[in-house]
Design a protein that fits this description.
Blueprint: E1 5-6, H1 13-38, H2 44-67, E2 71-72, E3 78-79, H3 81-105, H4 109-132, E4 134-135, E5 138-142, H5 144-167, H6 171-194, E6 196-200, H7 216-236, H8 239-242
Antiparallel strand pairs: 1-2, 3-4, 5-6
Helix pairs in contact: 1-2, 1-5, 1-6, 1-7, 2-3, 2-4, 2-7, 3-4, 4-5, 5-6
Amino acid sequence: MQGTVDGFSYGLVTPVAAFLMACLGGALGLRCTTRSLRNGDSFKAGWLALGATSIGTGIWTMHFIAMMGFSVQHVPIGYDRPITFASLAVAIVMVGIGIFIVGYRGATALALVTGGTITGLGVATMHYLGMAGMRFQGRVEYDTLTVALSVLIAVVAATTALWAAVSVHGFLASLGASLVMGLAVSGMHYTAMAAVRVQVHGAPPSGTGDTAASLLLPMLVGPAVFLLLAAVVVMFDPLLVMGEPDWQKPSRRPAPPRPRFPAPARRAGHHHPQDW
């Protein structure tokens, strides 16, 4: 029997909260990536790792905030905890691989396409692995074309985000890039959810695993950590938010030529020090 699926059980609350979380993780991650590219010091790997963790955790938290609004009529849904948190690890690792490629290979077309593809596949893998962690009396089926479209959106969004990290400078431009990234990631999620078909088997059980409500605490810890990291980053390294100030940028105007003075004439019988 096909179950009745509702992806907006709480109205616009969960989509808006999920979008804001995706924007927050993306903003911090993109600025950390930009910081690593501008400064080739010993902290480069640290900035890239922080960026990957921020984006991966932000996307994962966005996914499960959105899933709090997902329900199947008269069917309790549980979540397998190991699979749920394994999807977080997959997101961080695969996003990290993509970011490190761009961070160390530079903003070349090949690096952006390769890094963006790996990062986008990481986002999609996180989503569908998280969906595999659902536990209820039935099974989930997917429309193949819609799934392919969701993966394509994830890859394009990730590639665009990495391009923005290496190309966009300044607070307003970075804010716009973060909003676009949040919109693209949220769009990928709800496109993927549009592919879902649920087949219910028999009478609904009393529920297995952890419910979405029991996972609320980890979801709230994530945003708190993000806000703390953002505050620390802004406090100690404002370059991440405001960009490089104009007075610190090297001037691109050519230096004026130095005036050439004629060499003094040498007197007869007088030895110049350079002749020694």
